[in-house]
Design brief:
By secondary structure, this protein is an alpha/beta fold. Helix content is 47%, strand content 16%. Among the domains are: 74 residues, no CATH class; 104 residues, Alpha-Beta Complex (Lambda Exonuclease, Chain A), CATH 3.90.320. The protein contains 10 helices and 7 strands. The two termini are 21 Å apart.
Length: 273
């Protein structure tokens, strides 16, 4: 259904009682109207093929890391049955937009990315992960901020590891790569410190690049700095202020061309709360 008017203001303010995730924070700062469609009006959209491929690669690596954590066999052959079953079951809950005959091609692409990662991973295979796909929450009320929440892909050797699939090769400059994911990684650092009681050794982004010949790019970072924590806090404050004011004005730009809410956004009346 096309959304023609803004949701009531109390719908905005009630969301301030919910923990802040990196995806929620980043969506708000990318486009406040997209945030409204996603988190307030809760308009569901079918997943695109690239998004589904990324999710299935992530699920495959989660299975692999879980097997390592449980000291179970974890070769590509060991996790393939789980990958196939996840592919089948995932579409029962959320349909995926595939062109005719495209699904099998995308499935093989996703599996090829998993295989490439397993063959080239820099992780020490004989070292048991500390945590896999762990949900964590931290209370920032002493800073005048809400709770934060996130799911960390992997913690190994006190290092936070996050898996990404990408259509393009990330920059060779680690600072520029970190900047793109700064809110997420800094938030994860705070979650880790709150749960474990110590600072992380570092952070790693493992980009699996979806080229004709896939490649793995690992970017390493030092622990989150005080400057980065302060920047995250300012981003959360800006989010809280905007939500409290009922700010749902769209941020029009080049990113609109790939947004699944284009039609809904065009139908928005611009009505103020």
């Amino acid at each position: 259904m096309i959304s023609l008017a803004a949701p009531p203001k109390d719908a905005f303010t009630s969301i301030l009682d919910e923990p802040v995730s990196a995806s929620r924070l980043n969506t708000f700062h990318q486009c406040r109207r997209k945030f409204t469609f996603t988190y307030l009006e809760k308009i569901k959209k079918p997943a695109t093929a690239p998004l589904h491929v990324g999710r299935m690669v992530h699920a495959g690596l989660q299975e692999w890391n879980t097997r390592r954590w449980l000291n179970r066999p974890c070769t590509a052959e060991d996790i393939r049955p789980s990958f196939d079953e996840n592919w089948r079951l995932s579409q029962l809950d959320e349909p995926v937009i595939f062109d005719e005959g495209e699904e099998e091609v995308q499935k093989q692409k996703a599996w090829g990315l998993v295989e490439h990662y397993l063959a080239n991973t820099p992780l020490a295979l004989d070292e048991k992960p500390e945590a896999v796909e762990v949900m964590a929450e931290a209370d920032l009320s002493k800073h005048g901020l809400p709770k934060i929440r996130g799911v960390i892909d992997l913690i190994q050797d006190s290092t936070i590891v996050d898996f990404k699939t990408s259509a393009v090769t990330p920059s060779s400059d680690p600072d520029l790569v970190f900047q793109k994911h700064e809110n997420q990684l800094t938030l994860y650092s705070l979650l880790y410190r709150d749960a474990v009681g110590k600072k992380e050794k570092g952070q790693q982004l493992h980009h699996i690049v979806k080229l004709k010949s896939p490649k793995l790019v690992v970017t390493s970072h030092e622990p989150a700095t005080e400057k980065q924590v302060t920047r995250l806090f300012r981003a959360i404050e800006s989010y809280m202020d905007g939500v409290e004011r009922g700010d749902d004005v769209p941020s029009v730009g080049l990113h609109c061309s790939s947004c699944s809410y284009q039609r809904e956004c065009l139908a928005w009346t611009g009505e103020r709360l």
